[in-house]
Amino acid sequence: MRGLLGPFEQGDIVPLFRDDARAASLRAASGEFFTEDFECVFVRDDVGRAAYSGLDGLRAAFLDWLSPWESYYPAVEDVIDAGDGRVVVLTRDHARPKEASGGLDFMGAPIWTVRAGRVARIEFYWNRDEGLAAAGLDDASAQARQRS
C-alpha cells in the first residue's frame, strides 16, 4: 500500500497528471495493483461527490481537481487500518493557485478499499474530519490507532 503512495510524495504532482507520457508510465507501472472495476470518488465542497471509473477515471479526476492549481504537493502523514479492507491515508497537501503567490493547505483523509490484495476504491476527502467520519473514526480514535 505504502508503495502506491510513492509517486504522490515525490514533489509537485501537477506535471505527473498533465503530461500524457508521464501519466501513461504511472498507469502502466501501477495498473496491476488495482481491480478491474476500480473506482474513485472525489468528495469536494464545490461538486459534492463525483465518481470516476478505472485508472483513466482516476487521471480524469485528478485533472479536474488540479485544474486551478499551478503546483500541488501532497504529503502522507500516516496510514491507518480502518478495518474491513479499508485504509485511511492521512494527508497534508499544499497547493498554489494559478497566478497567485500564496498557497493553501489541505488536511485530508482519503479512504482506500482493498479487495483480494488490490485497490478497489478510493474516496478522496480533502476535509480530514469528513474522511475520518466516513471511515467510522474520529480524530481521537485515529490518533489511538496511529500509536498502536
Descriptive notes:
The protein has 148 residues and is an alpha+beta fold. The protein has one domain: Nuclear Transport Factor 2, Chain: A (Roll). The protein is 30% helix and 41% strand. It has five helices and eight strands, in the order H-H-E-E-H-E-E-E-E-E-E-H-H. Strands 1, 2, 3, 4, 5, 6, 7 and 8 form an eight-stranded mixed β-sheet that branches. Strand 1 and strand 2 form a beta hairpin. The longest helix is centred in the middle third of the chain and has 13 residues, at 54-66. The two termini are 18 Å apart.
| N-to-C SSE string, H for helix and E for strand | HHEEHEEEEEEHH
Helix content: 25-40%
Poorly predicted tracts of residues: none
Helical stretch count? Answer: 5
According to DSSP, the number of beta strands is 8
Which whole number gives the mean pLDDT?
87
Provide the CATH top-level class.
Answer: Alpha Beta
Q: Give me the CATH fold name.
A: Nuclear Transport Factor 2, Chain: A
Keywords:
5 helices, 30% helix, 148 residues, Nuclear Transport Factor 2, Chain: A, eight-stranded mixed β-sheet, 41% strand, single chain, alpha+beta
Q: What's this model, at a glance?
A:
This protein is of the alpha+beta class and 148 residues long. The chain has helices spanning 14-18, 20-30, 54-66, 128-134, 139-147, and strands at residues 34-44, 48-53, 69-73, 76-83, 86-97, 104-108, 111-115, 118-125.
Write the layout of secondary structure elements.
Layout: H1 14-18, H2 20-30, E1 34-44, E2 48-53, H3 54-66, E3 69-73, E4 76-83, E5 86-97, E6 104-108, E7 111-115, E8 118-125, H4 128-134, H5 139-147
Parallel strand pairs: 1-8
Antiparallel strand pairs: 1-2, 3-5, 4-5, 5-6, 5-7, 7-8
